[in-house]
Amino acid sequence: MVEKIIVGKGWKDLKKYGPRGTAYIGKHIVGKGEESHLTNPIHMDVTRPHVVLVCGKRGTGKSYTAGVVAEEIYRLPKDIRKNICVLMIDTMGIYWSMKLPNERDADLLKEWGVKPEGIKTNLFVPKGYFDEYKKAGITVDFPFTVSVSELTSEDWAITFGFSMIDEYGILIEQVMERLEEREGNYSIEDIIGEIEKDERSGKKVKEALINRFLAAKEWGIFEKKGTKTEDLLKSGTISILDVSHYMRVSESWSIRAMVVGLLSRKIFKERLAARKVEEYGKVTGQARKTIPMIWIMIDEAHQFIPEKGSTAASGPLLTLVKEGREPGISMLMITQQPNKLRGDALSQADLIISHRLTSKADIEALRSIMQTYMLEDIQDYLNELPKTKGSAIVLDDNLERIYEIQVRPRFSWHAGGSPIILKERSLLEGMET
Ligand SMILES: Nc1ncnc2c1ncn2[C@@H]1O[C@H](COP(=O)(O)OP(=O)(O)OP(=O)(O)O)[C@@H](O)[C@H]1O
Ligand SMILES: [Mg+2]
Q1: What spacing in Å lies between the alpha carbon of 65 and ligand 2's midpoint?
Q2: Is the pTM of this model over 0.85?
Q3: Which of 209, 261, 293, 315 has its CA 20 to 30 A from that of 255?
Q4: Tens digits of residue pLDDT in 85-104
């Protein structure tokens, strides 16, 4: 049998567990250019918390690679899978198609000795867009909502582009404080009502805020009661949260950031609590059901944690990246431009899958985070990659190794390249006939 190359495991785990709990992500590329060929399978650990960075130029296979990792987690043996769940933050609206088998690449899959196969996913779509998806013939599983009272005044201020110390930020804070005291669970209408009642602020400020909250209502996501985190994080499941619709709205990134920020805060809190219960269970021998270990996959990560400036998601996501190991949270961040991603987030990556990358600044960004042993090599390795889609280098900080890899073809359908859902409708219809 051909030996497996395992990345992301320390020596101790390797010795103890071998390839158990790993994801088969592709094959090792040996040789250069035309001479190159595929050899040993490469497996990546998914059972310990990791911070994985997937980068590469446009269209080189980043989102596809994330899909491969998700598929592999789904295919883990049941006893391992039950302790893990995946949450894919889908900014482009491309992961809904994972339910369908990848017939498009049937020939390629055959070369790899496997068959097209869809996987079971839980697709969450903002409530306001749920019906639109259904009409487009897409199997959506759950409407997604955010509880208004869980958002802070700072969330709103940052989302609307105000500061906490300008008159807008101050009014938001006052209004929300009053509502919190009085209502507990409140809605956007309640916030608007409270702004209208305010006597201290000027008309201009009030109107500007009311208009923004009215617009926020249109996002079809805010309710008194929000989707429970535990529904998104069911053990052994792949949840996809499609936030792509906001592409059409001008403040699109700030809305997504607000949702992602809130979710990240909640997940961190709940996993911390779960970790305590698990530890307690270990000590007392009474195992209790908690939420599982989480893999959060996030496309266009540099939009949420930009190098310059901040979004409502920057702080909470950075916390996950920096402190997620202890509570069992893994992050897979995808970006076209590692150079534009906050250095703090980048430097936490212990595994990097870099597809082709040509910009000097981006290669420099990678260099800056890898250990000295790799310094000279990255550019050479990248230059030597075959031009095939899905070729990449894998940098493993755990074992200080670097490999060239051809990421395996997907079993499930990848809708990348055509982000707009309606474009894919014809494709879906085509498949049903
Ligand atoms: N490992 C692979 N094997 C076969 N084909 C692949 C592989 N990876 C990517 N592709 C092909 O390349 C296309 C582009 O991949 P993908 O959507 O992942 O690009 P991307 O890097 O995410 O691009 P963008 O920066 O535009 O988001 C896919 O639709 C698929 O057809
Ligand atoms: Mg992509």
Answers
A1: 9
A2: yes
A3: 293
A4: 999 999 989 999 999 999 99
